[in-house]
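Support request, please re-run this one:
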Amino acid sequence: MAIANPVKFFQEVRAEISKVTWPTRREVILTTIMVFILAALAALFFSLVDMAIRGGLTWVLDYFGG
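Re-run finished. Output below.
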């Protein structure tokens, strides 16, 4: 196992970072808003599913439980 040269390592890291395409401020804001909206929709969906399952189980237990 060879010992890596730290100077060469940081030069390679800098070269790789320069290849990265960084998002614009507008892209970051839009994708952040989209994430919040989709998270809220998912929370609403799972809340509705939870209420439906709870209501169904309550009905079944009341109907067959006596």
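Residues 25-65 form the longest helix (41 residues). Helices lie at 6-18, 25-65.
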